[in-house]
Specification:
Layout lengths: L6 H6 L11 H4 L7 E2 L1 E3 L7 E2 L15 E4 L7 E8 L8 E9 L5 E2 L15 E2 L21 E10 L11 H11 E11 L4 H7 L11
Parallel strand pairs: 1-10, 3-10
Antiparallel strand pairs: 2-4, 4-7, 5-6, 5-9, 6-8, 9-10
Protein name: Phosphatidylethanolamine-binding protein
Pfam families: PBP
Organism: Variovorax paradoxus
């Protein structure tokens, strides 16, 4: 993780982004015509800013999510949240949750553990900070808008995941048994210091590239 990047580095890295093509939703290469899951949130609409409450500039808890249109034969669900615009070769993983029951239909606010919150007892995998919790959006200043991909996958079986599965383990399980997928994009942007001086806003939390 790149932490506390100065504005000049954020500007210099503006052209360096993992890219939407590399998020699991697109990299998985699911065939055309496969069922699509509708993923929404009561906190923000698709391609709109994520409220500060759910980022490193606020309480840093995970946002509420809902999903519908699961296909028949869904045995379990997986949630992966990635930053498509992180200045890294692959998107930064902000959350992994596996083993969600099909009948759940939603995740409540703060359901995923975070630094000051125990969560709702979910089976949580490792984020890019190697922690089994929600990693709040915290893009570097001056790097521009970051797109956070909330991806929900339906599986035809319930794989036996490790205690804290990482992206590769989950990707292989999805490759083997994913039958539908859905995507919700939320955005977050931290202006550079020169803009923040004019805003007289409260000081932001620790800065991290993601």
């Amino acid at each position: 993780m790149l932490e506390k990047l100065p504005d000049v580095i954020g500007h210099a890295l503006q052209g360096v982004r993992a890219g939407l093509d590399n998020i699991v939703f697109n990299a998985l290469g699911m065939r055309e015509g496969m069922a699509t899951i509708a993923v929404t949130s009561m906190a923000f609409v698709d391609h709109a800013p994520i409220p500060a409450r759910y980022t490193a500039d606020g309480e840093g808890v995970s946002p509420p999510l809902q999903w519908t249109d699961l296909p028949a034969g869904t045995a379990a669900l997986v949630l992966i949240v990635e930053d498509a615009d992180s200045p890294t070769p692959n998107p930064l993983v902000h959350a992994i949750v596996v083993g969600l029951p099909p009948e759940s239909g939603s995740l409540a606010e703060a359901a995923i553990p975070s630094p000051d919150n125990d969560g709702a007892g979910l089976h949580v995998g490792r984020n890019s900070a190697l922690q089994a919790m929600w990693l709040p959006p915290d893009p570097p200043p001056g790097h521009g808008e970051h797109r956070y991909a909330f991806q929900v996958f339906a599986l035809s079986e319930s794989p036996e995941f490790s205690d804290t599965p990482g992206r590769e383990e989950v990707f292989e399980a999805l490759r083997a048994s994913a039958i539908a997928s859905g995507l919700l994009i939320g955005t977050c942007e931290r202006p550079d210091g020169s803009i923040k001086i004019e805003e007289s806003a409260p000081a932001a939390g620790p800065l991290a590239a993601g």
